[in-house]
Amino acid sequence: MTTFIDLSATLNSRDQGPRPPSIEYVGHQQSAERCAAAYGVNQSDFRDSGYAAIEHLQLTTHDTTHLDAPWHYGPTSEGKRAKTIDEIPLEWCYGDGVVLDFHEKQKGDRITDIDLKKALSSIGYQLKPFDIVLIRTDVYQYYGQKDYADLNPGMSREATCWLVEQGIKVMGIDAWGWDRSLGSMIEELKAGNKEQFWESHYLGKEKEYCHLERLANLDRIPIPFGFKLSVFPIKIEAASAGWVRAVAIID
Known about the structure:
Blueprint: E1 3-6, E2 22-26, H1 28-39, E3 54-58, E4 66-68, H2 70-73, E5 76-77, E6 80-81, E7 94-101, E8 110-111, H3 113-123, E9 132-136, E10 154-155, H4 157-165, E11 170-173, H5 182-190, H6 199-203, E12 210-213, E13 225-230, E14 241-243, E15 247-250
Parallel strand pairs: 7-9, 8-10, 9-11, 11-12
Antiparallel strand pairs: 1-15, 2-3, 4-12, 4-14, 5-6, 7-13, 13-15
Helix pairs in contact: 3-4
């Protein structure tokens, strides 16, 4: 028997964050009115005088659960033009999943390469190339709330670099961003510490990798490894990111 666990946040217009998406719902009757006028027919010509419900969305590619492409980090990566989301190899987006539990870390904390090694040792797992590594913080529970961007710990540059050196091309986190909380980074930036600002994002200019942000339900995956992950992004031409319906698949 196969179990599917949805690891994606639900896009909705109730988001209280700094960049809330807009969703216009066009119901069956309203759609019929619009289409009847456009087609030059009567609304009563449609079955039950209704037509197809549709939605109009306004959001960025970095809202809700998404995959950042190297182009997001800078115009080049490893000395070559950085890949956009439509150029990400599909092979990177399906593979063996590994969950590392850091839900006891506090907002603004750095997750280091030493932390990663300890977490892997505690579950008895050794990474291999093209594993998809997920960082559990449980901050997803606050998705859509006003302070969501300021609650999470995040990955240090050294930790991200170490994962890439193990052959990991895709990694992800169940929080607003892969780096530390936005407020923590801004506070340190104002104090003159510029190097820490989006330190893991900017690593992507030197080492090619992708990360998933705003995942959900990592705490519902019952095993730390031994499952598959599907994280294919929407194919948007020349874009820096794409929305993902992330799914853990357990046999």
